[in-house]
Write a structure and sequence with these properties.
Elements lengths: L7 E5 L3 H16 L4 E2 L7 E6 L4 H15 L1 H4 L4 E6 H6 L1 H6 L5 E3 L7 H9 L7 E2 L20 E5 L1 E2 L10 H5 L3 E2 L2 H14 L3 E5 L16 H9 L6 E4 L9 H9 L3 E6 L7 H6 L6 H12 L6 E8 L6 H12 L5 E6 L17 H24 L5 E9 L7 E4 L11 E5 L7 E9 L4 E4 L10
Parallel strand pairs: 1-2, 1-3, 3-4, 4-5, 5-6, 7-10, 10-11, 11-12, 12-13, 13-14, 17-19
Antiparallel strand pairs: 8-9, 15-16, 15-18, 16-17, 18-19
Helix pairs in contact: 13-14
Length: 454
């Protein structure tokens, strides 16, 4: 009788796009009858799904791998596998640097892992490295084991054609591949049948969906079909580029109630000089025009964005343009990042690099400004009843439930704490906002049962 397959643990780092890959890998491992655990110290096989977007992410991935490699000595681990962006970016050099790694697979090669691990377990020699040309066309057909029973991510494309001068993703992921609408719709229906209420639409650039092949369905028809799926209540759009947001998409945002009144709009900067050096395809007037159109809808659309400060050549004037733009109050939520000179990108070799001290000062100034904007926007909701997606008991205290509004994306924005009343996790229920803090809201459910504070 063959020896049972080892208990397997999967550790995932990085963005929601990585989470989708991890959920698909979990499905493949389950189908191959690998027993799973959330505790790496109990596992005979540990898989690390890595991020290598910028150097801090590379360092986090390496630190995690080395920490888990210690479990070969102190725990039950027999095999250590690494997947995703780190092997794709560094190739066999990673195996030379970390000999404890038994298997390394690239961004499109993770479906190979179950079979490779079975062979390792059976004593059959296998190559340690598997990461060739990126080929994503068939990956979306793999089902996902959703991490939560009511919210999920739907990745509609992989790769990127934008080639921003600071970004290494096109070299790691390759050119964009938009997934077939039929496969995406089938996956979304299965998620709805599973109980998913909120579907977060993601890609490196969702507004580029379908544009790499003439005649292919683009974003708006896909969203219209997703909105028609019974059981889905919220569709949230993440990573939309301002210059590619069409009037057709803006009209749909204004009228389709299933699409959350929320749009992630990563502008990165507002100085035309800096946008040009970043090789961004948007100009200040394009960004402003898009935001104006969105703000002119009868329905309030909450915007989230990200900006980079300290980019090579960013003068005090460039930075002040950005700070003044943020102070105008266009964004409900915003993330600010100091520029990181990523080896292998064009921006890393640009002249006029900015001192780290200046980057940090500018980042703090942006976030202080945005904090005031966010507080002001959230304060508008005091006394109002709005729909809340209940997530369960708060991670902060067992005395509160945690939920999110339709303009609070999972993991990256604030949350809404329920201080009075009870509702089943996964339900959407109206809650009355009674308090607003810097990033979070506090609500009560007047028609629900009281929370048990005993």
């Amino acid at each position: 009788m063959p020896e049972p397959l080892p208990i397997t643990a999967l550790v995932t780092l990085g963005c929601p796009k990585n989470q989708v890959d991890a959920e698909q890998l979990l499905q493949l491992l389950t189908a191959a009858r690998f027993p799973l655990t959330a505790r790496p110290e109990e596992a005979g096989i540990i898989i690390v799904n890595t991020c290598a977007f910028i150097q801090p992410a590379v360092e986090e991935s390496l630190e995690t791998i080395l920490e888990l490699a210690e479990l070969k000595n102190t725990g039950s681990c027999r095999y250590l596998a690494v997947a995703g962006c780190l092997p794709q970016r560094y190739g066999k050099k990673l195996l030379e640097e970390v000999p404890e790694i038994d298997l390394a697979v690239g961004t499109s090669s993770f479906p190979l892992l179950p079979a490779l691990l079975e062979k390792l377990h059976a004593g059959i020699p296998v190559a340690r490295f598997h990461a060739g040309t990126t080929n994503y066309a068939d990956l979306t057909a793999i089902p996902q084991i959703c991490s939560q029973p009511y919210t999920a991510y739907l990745k509609i494309a992989e790769g990127c054609n934008n080639h921003c001068s600071y970004c290494f993703i096109p070299q790691i992921k390759g050119p964009q591949t938009s997934f077939a609408p039929s496969l995406l719709l089938d996956k979304a229906r299965r998620m709805a049948d599973y109980g998913i209420r909120e579907l977060n639409i993601i890609a490196q650039d969702i507004t580029a969906y379908g544009r790499e092949r003439p005649g292919q369905s683009t974003l708006v028809p896909l969203l219209e079909q997703l909105a028609a799926i019974d059981g889905l209540s919220w569709l949230r759009l993440l990573y939309a580029y301002p210059g590619k947001i069409t009037d057709e998409l803006i009209t749909l945002l204004g009228k389709e109630e299933k699409i959350c009144p929320y749009l992630d709009l990563p502008i990165q900067h507002i100085s035309g000089h800096i946008l040009q050096r970043m090789n961004r395809h948007d100009q200040p007037e394009t960004i402003r025009q898009t935001i104006h159109k969105l703000q002119s809808l009868g329905r309030t659309i909450h915007l989230r964005s990200t900006v980079i400060v300290g980019f090579p050549g960013e003068t005090d004037h460039d930075f002040q343009l950005l700070l003044d733009f943020i102070a105008e109050g266009h964004f409900t939520y915003l993330g600010c990042f100091p520029y990181w000179p990523e080896t292998g990108t064009r921006a890393a070799s640009l002249d006029q690099q900015v001192e780290d001290r200046v980057k940090e000062e500018r980042c703090r100034a942006i976030m202080t400004c945005q904090q005031e904007v966010t507080s002001r926007q959230l304060a508008v909701y005091r006394g109002k009843s709005i729909p809340l997606l209940v997530e369960g008991v708060s991670s902060e205290t067992e005395l509160l439930l945690q939920s999110r509004t339709s303009f609070q994306a999972p993991d990256i924005d604030g949350v809404t704490y329920i201080t009075d009343g009870f509702a089943t996790p996964g339900t959407i229920i109206n809650g009355k906002i009674h308090e607003a803090h810097e990033y979070d809201l506090f609500a009560e459910l007047p028609e629900a049962h009281p929370l048990d504070h005993d």
